[in-house]
Design brief:
This protein has 1 helix and 8 strands. The protein is mostly beta strands and about 90 residues long. The chain starts with about 25 loop residues before the first strand and ends with a strand.
Length: about 90
């Protein structure tokens, strides 16, 4: 049994560019999350800023809609720097 906080094999994936959590993401836009049992959008352990060290090149989440989820609409944990523009978060439990 594998017990660890990381996904099995996460650090062993060879992208040729380093750790997946530190790769540049660019943008994520116009997505919807509705009626999930936990979070609408969960963003964990995203460390792009630690590689690039540039506040102009941070992950961009644009026009996300998250509504009527059981817990959180958007939950970000261990995310150093990110930018959220526009969107809608409504009627989530937390």
């Amino acid at each position: 049994m594998y017990i660890d906080w990381r996904t099995l094999g996460e650090d062993n994936i060879d992208t040729g560019k380093g750790n997946l959590r530190r790769l540049e993401m660019k943008s994520f836009k116009d997505n919807k999350a509705h009626a999930n049992t936990w979070q609408g959008f969960s963003i964990y352990d995203f460390e792009q800023f630690l590689t690039l060290r540039d506040y102009a090149r941070v992950p961009l989440f644009e026009n996300l809609s998250s509504y009527r989820n059981r817990e959180h609409g958007i939950y970000a944990s261990n995310v150093h720097t990110a930018q959220f523009i526009g969107g809608l978060v409504a009627d989530n439990q937390w």
